# Entry
Amino acid sequence: MTQGLFDIKDSDANGRIGNFRVPRSNVIVETPAFLPVINPKLQTISPSELASKFNVQILITNSYIIRQTDHLHHAAIENGLHKLLDFPGAIMTDSGSFQLAEYGSVDVTTSEIIHFQNAIGSDIATPLDIPTPPDVSYEVAKLDLQTTSERLELSKTLVENDMLISAPIQGSTHIDLREKAASDAYALGFDVFPVGAAVPLLTQYRFQDVVNIIMATKRGLGLDAIVHLFGAGHPMMFALAVAAGCDLFDSAAYALYARRGSYLTTEGTKQLLEMDHFPCHCPICSTYTPSELRDLSPNKCESLLAEHNLYVSLSEINKIKVAIKEGSLLELVELRSRSHPAMLDGCKALFRHSIQLEKQDPAVKGTFFHTSDLSHYRPEIIRHHKNLSRFRIGKNVLLTTNTSSSILSNYGEVWYVKPPFGPFPIGLSHTYPLTAEIPNHIDINALQQAVAGISTLVSLHPQTTFTFAHENWPQLILETLPDAVKLINLSS
Ligand SMILES: [Zn+2]
# Structure
């Protein structure tokens, strides 16, 4: 990738806040960034308003539509894309692959569309890849990927004038193909890596599959790779996608949802027709009531609804940045997992990748809050269990859930057991993440994780005698401990 393009400032889980330098228009885009999709033929909110009113630094439009529409084609060649759209920020262009997926063919070649994107002044071009839909056979996905790879290689040789180029990562729902496609594209030195053909999964709310393909893509890429999620529509899933490692999103949802009277929130979608109150304080929602908005002309109503939808999307990106900065991104993900049952599946899928997340997750953050039955999956717990091998330990050790118990004096060495982490030397109680705030009534999965930690410690020290003093922990959980661990119930 182009040297010095991406400067990572903060990170949490796989999410990062970074500065993305877009050389052709000399713009620095702060990531995670939301790229509103601009239909060059139909603008619900004009690009100049996106810049002036919403502070949007980057947008995406479709170079294929511009190329195939005479007056747009001539204007774009004559005056450039930035003048055509009247937008001062960075402009990424798509290539017609979406039209290829929708209509089965497009009237342009790979070199023609790259030359065109260069000629109109695109900042980030996209090759004409093959967007393979989900669930196709392995053979079909592999053949499509072969064509995409050949086109990527060709496209890379055609780049001119500081234009950056993206490499859409395909492979359908076949995880190994996604990972291989990502590592091949990364080796070729592309600048941005969009996760391709995710739209059918996103529109069907298959967030679990989306997470799995993002994580596979990330495994194939270096840390400096900028990852883009094509068509990430709904703001309720932005935190999830960022935590999985996406830096850029594009979405037409703000406009498309408004067209059908839908009002976006981070907790799901509402219908303007059915609303009595707005749960939002953006400039639109604090100026109008739902009924006042409905009484406006259809065009005005649609455009104000699109503005609200955009405010919600951009405000969620800001919340995500705040969360990354303070190290609470996974807590935000847990909160968003309550927005929809499919989001719960998606968030669980992310936490199942905790071993992968742990590799990038910062060692120290703000206080760990155990806020849901997903918290015990967090990468901090995996890391704590890994770190157990670093400690020296004596011959006779008490592990206890209560450090003020009178039995402590009978033991030379005492470790504290705190769910969901498990055992650690008492001296570490004031270090991250062991300072975690946990509820008084913690769920059984968190106890299970703590017991898994004890089992790890025991297996590391076969010569040590361990006693575990607990307070009414369920038998079901205690039974999973190695037989050698002596048990004391402090509450009996
Ligand atoms: Zn609003």
Summary: The mean pLDDT is 95. DSSP finds 20 helices and 18 strands in the chain. The first strand starts at residue 6 and ends at 12.
